[in-house]
Design a protein that fits this description.
- By secondary structure, the chain is an alpha/beta fold.
- Helix content is 57%, strand content 15%.
- It has a 3-stranded parallel β-sheet.
- It is globular, with a radius of gyration of 12 Å.
- It starts with a strand and ends in a 7-residue tail after the last strand.
Amino acid sequence: MNSILDACAMIAYLQGHPGGTVVEAILTDAVATAYAHSINLCEVYYHFLRLSDEGTASQAVDDLLESGVIERQDMSRAF
């Protein structure tokens, strides 16, 4: 199953909030694929930058990508 994650879902996952378990289930499902658009990853970065610092913000995005989130950068309507 393909899933597209928005910033709120990824933030919930990273911060252990309710709803984050849904994202965790997607990321640990061997047949699931999780996509996130670059803009949503920028929102995650900005969220953690406001809470902490650049290093924490970068680590948050890195953690998502290392967890299996596939970044999409296209801006066409076909996406």
